[in-house]
Amino acid sequence: MAPAKGLAALREARAKGGRLGQWKPSESELYDEVTDDQYRSIVGDRLDADDFIEDDDHGGYVDNGMDDWDNGRDEDESEDEDAFEGEDEEFRKARLLKKQKARARANAGKPLAKTNKPKAKSAFSDYARPVASSSSSTYRPAPNAMQEDDFMASLLSSVTSTANDTAARKRKSSPDIPSSEGLHPSSDSSFFSSSGRKRYGIEEDDEDDDHNSPSIWDAKRGVMGKKPRMSDITVVPSHQDYDQENDFIMDVDEEEIMVKPELIDEDEEDDEMQIRKIKPLAATTANLNGATTARRKVINSNSIKNVLKPDPVKVKAEPIDEDNIEIVKPRLSSTSTPRNGKVLNGASHWSAIQESLLQPQTKGSELEEVKASFSSVKAENVLEEDGSLSMFWLDHFEQDGVVLFVGKVLDRQSGKHVSACVSINGIERNLFVKPRAKRVVQGQETDDDVSRTDVFTEFDSIRRKAGIEEWAASYVQRKYAFEDKSVEKGESEWMKVAYGFDQPEIPMGTTGQTFSHVFGTNTTPFELLVLKRKIMGPCWLKIENPTLSTKSASWCKIEFTVSDPKTVNPFSETDNAAPKDTPPLTIMSISLRTIVNHRENKTELLCATTRTWEGCNIEDPTPPDQLRSSLNTIIRPIEKFPPGLEQRGKTDKSPFQTVKAERALLNSLLATIQRFDPDVLVGHNFLGNTFEALLYRLKELKADHWSRIGRFRRKGFNISKGGSNHRLLAGRLVADLSSDAVKGMISSTTWSLTEMCGTHLKIQREDVDPEDTHSYFDHTLSSPDRLVKFIRLCEVDAFFQMAIAARVQMVPLTKQLTNLAGNSWNLTLNGGRAVRNEFILLHEFHRLKYVCPDKAPFKSKKHVVNDEEDTEDIATKPIGARGKAKYSGGLVFEPKRGLWDTYIMVMDFNSLYPSIIQEYNIDFTTVEREVEDDSGETEEKIPDVPASDVSQGVLPRIIATLVNRRRQVKGLMKNKSATPAQLLQYDIRQQALKLTANSMYGCLGFAGSRFSSRPLAALTTFKGREILTHTRELAESLQLDVVYGDTDSVFVNSNVTSLPEAHRIANDFKKLVNERYKLLEIDLDAIFERILLLNKKKYAAVKIEDNGERKTEVKGLDMKRREFSKVSKDASSAVLKEILSGESTEIVVEKIHELLTNLGEAVKNGLIPLEDFIIFKRLGKNPEDYPDKKSQPHVQVALRMKSKGASVRAHDVIPYIMCLDESGKGGKTAQAERAFHPDDLRRQGSELKIDYDFYLDTQILQPVLRLCETIEGTERARLAECLGLDPSRYASSGPSVSDEKQFFTFESQISDKERFKDAEPLQLRCVSCESAFTFQGLMDESTNIQPVGISCSACQAILHPASVSVQLENQIRAHVSRYYLGWTVCDGEGCGARTRMMSVYGKRCLGLVKEGCKGTVRLEYNDSKLYNQLLYYRSLFDGEKAISNARGSQRFEEIRALVLPNTALFGQLVQVTDKYLDKNGRRFVDMKGLFGFMERIKI
Known about the structure:
By secondary structure, the chain is an alpha+beta fold. Helices cover 31% and strands 15% of the residues. Among the domains are: 330-371 and 582-699 and 733-821, Nucleotidyltransferase, domain 5, CATH 3.30.420; 428-523, Alpha-Beta Plaits, CATH 3.30.70.2820; 889-930 and 941-970 and 995-1110, Palm domain of DNA polymerase (Alpha-Beta Complex), CATH 3.90.1600.10; 1124-1290, Topoisomerase I, Chain A, domain 4 (Orthogonal Bundle), CATH 1.10.132; 1327-1374 and 1424-1499, Hypothetical protein af0941, CATH 1.10.3200.20; 1383-1420, no CATH class. The protein is built from 40 helices and 42 strands. The strands form 12 sheets. A 7-stranded mixed β-sheet has the order 14-15-6-5-4-13-16. β1 and β2 form a beta hairpin. The N and C termini lie far apart (91 Å).
C-alpha cells in the first residue's frame, strides 16, 4: 500500500472513532469448544503418546502431556486423603510405606511407564440431577430464574462478608521439600472471599493466614481449590527412614494371640503384615475431626503407644438416679418445615428429638467409651475352674464343615461380657440308606433278596467313585412317616453312614440296585449340631476342653477351638449354678447417606452415623432415649466443605468427624464398628439397597480389612446379587426394620421410616429428596447450616431406627421365637418363618428317631410374589402343571349384602386349624394317606380321620405343649405383684407361643417346606369347612340368621336391639357349640351395633368395646388398600361414618352430598396437600421383568427411579401421583406415562400438575359408589355432580346403580345349596298307592333310598327303575318347554308387564301396562335357571359326589352303604339327565366360533 493511501486510511479511521471500533472478528474460531468427555479423551490421547518432550539432558525438564493446573505439584505429595481421626498408627505407617515403595519403584532408573488415561476426580456437577435440556453440562441441571437469584444472593453475601480482608502474598514452597497438604476439603475461605483475588493461580501477597490463601484451579476436579501450602509441623521422612521399617511387625504383648492376616491384594504383596488390636487415642472420641489436625496432635506415635501400653483404665459408669431424671418433652420447632410440608397431629418434630438426645451428653462421659484392646482378654479370665467355657451363643457361621459359634463370655477381670468365637470341629455327616427288599436291575425288580452285605458293598463302591476315603456304617432302627410313597412307613432297618464334612458330598437322590433312598446328603453341619446337642436357639452353652486358638478366624476378643462336638452342650434347666439371663448386648444403629455419581453411574457414601448402646439388656423395657449411648458421625465432601463446617464439627454439642475422601470414611466406619464390636446392627432397608452399595464401595476403594463389618475374617470379596450378602455380616445379628419379620410385627402401608416414625413414635420425620442431596454439599454457600442439618437428619434417623425396634420389641420377641424353634436367631430376624416351623419338627422327629425328608435344593424353588400379596416360596411345578390349588381352603359364606342395624354377634373359633389338628389327631404318624397317581387328576382326595384309639401324634403334641405353656404364661400375667418389666417379658413370651402354635398348620400346606403334606392340609381345611357349616346349621335351627361367615367365624344376627339380650343369646349359642367338641372352642369375638356388608371379606361395622365405647372396624374396603390415596381414604371414611351413624336415610344422603360438594371444591381449588394424592403400589417383581410395564404406572415410576441411579427391586412399595400430560389434559384411566414420583412435583420449578379429575373419578367417586350402592336415594350422576364432574358421563340407564356394580362369585365356586335354592324338587308318584312325594336325594337325612331302590314315603313300596326314569324325563321336558315359551317380564317400577311379544328395540318395554315405561324386559325363565334345574336333577343321583361330600362326617358309612347297591340304578338316571345336559349350550365354549378367524388359510 502506498504511504499516501495508508495515511488517508488512518485519517478516515480516526474520524470514525478509531480502528478498534471497526474491527470485526474473523469467521474462523480461535479455539475449539469441546465437552468434558471430549476434553478427557484429548488429554488421554496425548498421554498415550508418552513424553512428547524428552528429558534428554536430565536437567529436570520433562513434559508428559498433562495440563499443569496445579503448578507442578505431584499428587503423591498432597496430604493423605485416606487418613481419619482415630486411625491406628501402625495402619497409617503401613499405608504410607506402600505409597513410598511405589514411588521408589517408579523412580529407580526405569524409563517412565506409559501412563494410563487419567480418571478425573468427581466434580460437584457429577452428582447433580441430570437434565436433558442442559447444554452446559451433562450432569448439572439448567438453573431457573429463582435458582439464579438464590445463587447471586449467596454470592454477594460472601463477597460482602470478606470485602475488607487484606490479600497478602505467600511465598512459594521449596521444591526440595514437598508440600504435605493437598486440596483441603474444608472451605474456610471460598473462591469469592477476596475481591482482589485472581482466578487462575497467579500469585499474590499472602501471609500464613489460612483464611486468605489464594485459590487455584484444580484440573482433576474442575473447580477452584486451595493452593497447597507447606506444613509447619509435618515433614515427610526420607526414603532411608522407611527402608529401616520395611520388615517391621506391629508390637504385641508376648501373651497375645497372633492373628492370621487377611489376604492382601496383589499390589500389596510386599507389605504383608500382622494385625494388632487398635490402641485408643489420647484424644476423646467425640472430637474426631479432620485428619490434618489429628496428625499434628500425634507427633510422636511411639510415645503415645508407650503411654497406652499398660492395662487400660477401667472407668466405672455411675448409676443413673432414676428418681432425679428430668424428662425433657420435645417441642415442635417452627423454624424447620418437613419435606412433605405437613405435620402429624400430636407428633413431635425431629429437631426437638435431636435436641433432647444431645442434652444428657457431656464431654466428660466420652472417656467411658474407650474400649480395651483385644489382647486384654485372657483365657484364664473367661474359663471356669474346671477348664470349661460358658458362652451365650448368638450367631453361627459354617466353613468347610466347621461350625463357628459367636457369642458372649464373661471376662471376670473387667466384669464385662466380651465377644468370643468357638470353632467346633469334628462334625460328621449322617446318611441314612434305605435297603430294598428285592434287587432292582435296570429298573426291574428281581426275585433276589438283598442282604446287609449287598447294601454295604454297593454303597462302598459308590463312595469310592465319589472320593470318600474314611467312613463308617452300621445298621439301626429308624422310622419314616412322610410323603415319599416309595419309602416304607413305620419302623424298619436302615444303614447309617457317617463320614466327615472334609469328604465329598454324595449327590442327592442317589439310588442303587440294593437301596432305594439316601437321606441326609445335603444336611448342613449346623443342623446336625443343634439337633444332636439339643441346642434350642440362643442360650448358654457349656463347652468342655476348649483350646485357645493360635490363629484368629474372627474379629472377636478371644477365640477357642474344640475338636469334639459332643463337648458342646446347653446347660440343664435344673442346674441352679448355670447362668440364666441373657447377657448385656451391644446394639448399634447404623444410618448411611448415599448419592449417585451420574458420570460413573455409581452409588457413593457421603455420611455414616452410628449410635451405640453398650451393655443393653434386651429384657429391660426402658426406652432407648433414656439409656446412655455413643454417637459417631463421619462426613466427607463432594469437592469441598462449606466454610466453617469443620469448626462446627468441633464446637457443636454433638461433634462429628470430617474426612477428605470416601475411602477414609469407610475406614473410619469400619474402625468404629471394630471399636464397639456390636452384637446387633439395627437399620432400615439395610440388607437391601444400603448394604449392597456399601459393599461395592468397600470393594472398589479397597478399604482396610473390610470384613470388620462382620465378625469373621475373610479372604475373598464376592458380592452376590441374589440377596445373600447378609452372610458377610455373620457373627452380628441384623435387625432390619424393612425385613419380612418386621412386616409381620408392624401394620403399615409402605414400611418406610417416615411412616413408622409417625405411626409408632408420633414423631414427624423429615425426609431428604435423593436428587437434592448434592445441594446440601454446595461449597459455595456462605454458611454450613444446610449441611449441618443434613448431618443431624442422618443422626436422628439412627435413633429412630432403634426406637422403633424397641417399640415393637423386635429383638426380644425374635429371641423367644428362636428359642421355641431351635434355629438361628438371624434367620428369625430376617423373616424365616418356614425355617422356624421346620426346626420345631426336626427337633421333635429327631428325638423320636425318625428319618426326616431332605430339604429341596434352592434352585428347584421359585419365588412367587403378587403385587398386593405377601411373598411365598413354592416348589417349581412340572411343565404343564395347572395353577389351580390342589386342595380347598377355608369356607366363606356368601354375605347377605346390605346395612344391618340389629346386633350382630361375631362368633369365632379360637385357633381353628391348630385346634382341629389336636381335636382329630391329624399328624404324619396317624393319618393314612392314599397313594396319589400321576395321571394329572386334580380331584382332591380327603383322607379319613384317625380312630379315637390311635396314640397322639407329633403335631398335636407340639401344639398342645405350646398352648399349655401360653396358658401358664397368661396366668403369670394376672399376678398383681409382677413388675412392668416382668409383665413385658410375659407378654412377649405369650405372643411368641401364640405365633408359633398358629403357624404350625402352615408347614403342611407350604409347598416349599420339607414337611409339606397336601393330604394333611386338605383334611384340616375340610374339617374346618365342615365345622363352620354345622355351626351355621345349628344357628338356623335356633331361628338365628347367619348373615356372613369366613373360615373360622360366623356373623349371627341376634334380631334384637338390646345389648344384654344379645350377650345372653351369644352365651347360649357358645355353650351349644362347645358341647359338640372336646378341644375346639368358640367364643364371642365382637358385637357389632351396625354393619354394612358389601361382599366377601369386605365389610364395615360399629363395634362395641368391652368398656362400652364404639369403634369402627373396616375390613377389605378400598380405604384399607394402599393403591388408594389419602384423599380417597378420607372421603370414604367420612361417607362411611355417615352411613353407620344410624340416622334416617334422607339425612344421611343429604350429608353425603354436602360432604362431596365441599371435597370437590377443595380438590379443584388446590386446598388439599400434595401428600394426600400419593398412591402406593408394591412391586411384585423387578420392574424390568413386567411384560406390561408400559401400562403399569408404578412400574413406569420405578423404571424412571432406576434410570436415575436409585436401587429399586421386587417387594418395594412405589409412591406416585397421577398428573396431567404435556398438553394439560388428563384421563379417566391411570395412564402409566402420566404417573410421577412425588419428589418430581415437590422440586422447585416443577411444571407438573395433578390430574384432579382422575382423583375425583377413580379415587373418590368409585369407592363412594361402592359404599352407597345399598343406600336408597343415592344416584351415580348426582354423586358425580357433587364432586364437580360431568353428570352426563355417569348417567345410569337402569333403575339403580347397584345393578351395574354387583359383585358375583364364580359359578364354579358356588355351593350346591346356593346354586339350587330356586330349583324345583323332583316329584315322584308311586304306582302302588298312587300317592306323590318329594324326592330329596342322598344327602337328605330322611331319604327314600333303600339298598334295593327308591321307596314310597307312604306305602314303602319300591318304585320300578323304569317308572322313575320316565317320570324324571317328563319333568325335564316340562322345564325345557317352559324355557322355549319365552315369557318375558318388565322390571319397570309399577309395570311388571308379562308378555311373549318383543319390541323392535329388543329389551325395551312395550308399555302395555304402564304407558311410557322405561323398564327392561327379561326372560321369566332363562337359560341359567334351566341349566341349574338340570344340574339339580343330576345331583340327586350322583353317588360319587355324595360319598365325597360325606367323607369325614358321621353319615359317611350310611351313605356309602346306600350308594354301592344302587350303582346301576343311579347310573341309569344320571344318563337321563346327561342326555339333556349334553345339548345345553352352557356346558360348552365354542372355541372355533371365538378364535376361528385366527386359522391359517389352507392352500
